[in-house]
Amino acid sequence: MRTLTRILTATTTAMALGGAALAVAPPASAAARDGVCDSGEFCYYFNSGNQGSLSDFTTSVADYSTTQPTCYDFKGTGAGKGTCIKNAAASAWNRSNKTVRVYFNTGYAGTYQDFAPGTKANLNPTLKNQNASHQFNPSSSPSRTAMSSVLYGTSGGRITCGFDGYTSTSGRHEGIDFARSVGSSVRSLVTGQVINVARGSTGRAGLSTIAIYVAASNKTVIYLHTAPLSSLRVGQQVSRGQSIATESWHGVSSRASAHTHVEVRPGRQTRASKSVGDPHLDNPNPASFWAAQGYSIR
Fold it and tell me: Domains in the chain, ordered, with CATH?
């Protein structure tokens, strides 16, 4: 009986110690994606001022996705819970010991905002509700893609006239002119909806227009002088890099002057602004827009 008592006592002690061992569990900071902003995590908030539901991360994410059930969503209590975080965050808190960079585009591209360790802040006006990826411990500056290498393909083209770059023509140039050889494929620089196609014809009187509306930034990218593909239609969704036309001289006096005019207009617009003979600029400098798209203007 004494032996049995000693065995039971030892077993009870071991169980008690085991319970104690289980009680000493890893702290909450080891948790991930639980809707609590723990130490070591980077957290988005649905509202400004670090309010509303939050979404917590311990690693970089190149694309949040936009549909349930595959998207990264807001998990914490409060406004926005369950909403996909892509283009929906208003503020952030970096509780990690590394700088975290929030990007406008997927794939760690476009304009960005850095959050130093410990920083609590609203996303800046460019990135508020326009967040598409984030990166822990980013390089000093992200690389940018040459616009012409997407407009014409890998080998690119050349700029023949920059924004507001007229030197021998009266008026203010409202876009950027790129040139390659006649017949070269012309591709969309953005993802958006085609809202106007005017096919035109070769020669000064035959101006062509393609207008693509980018809802996320409420801007329209307009292409002039190309020969739109016969398959291109109003209402069609096009992706960045998708072929939309061929290089031509629709609305240009000669084949030798063939080029593609690319213009960014605020809001939803179906036509380009007047440039030749017009002393006023209707469009803002597009440099920040193209930088936000991950481009360098070349």
Answer: 28-136 (2.60.20.10), 146-296 (2.70.70.10)
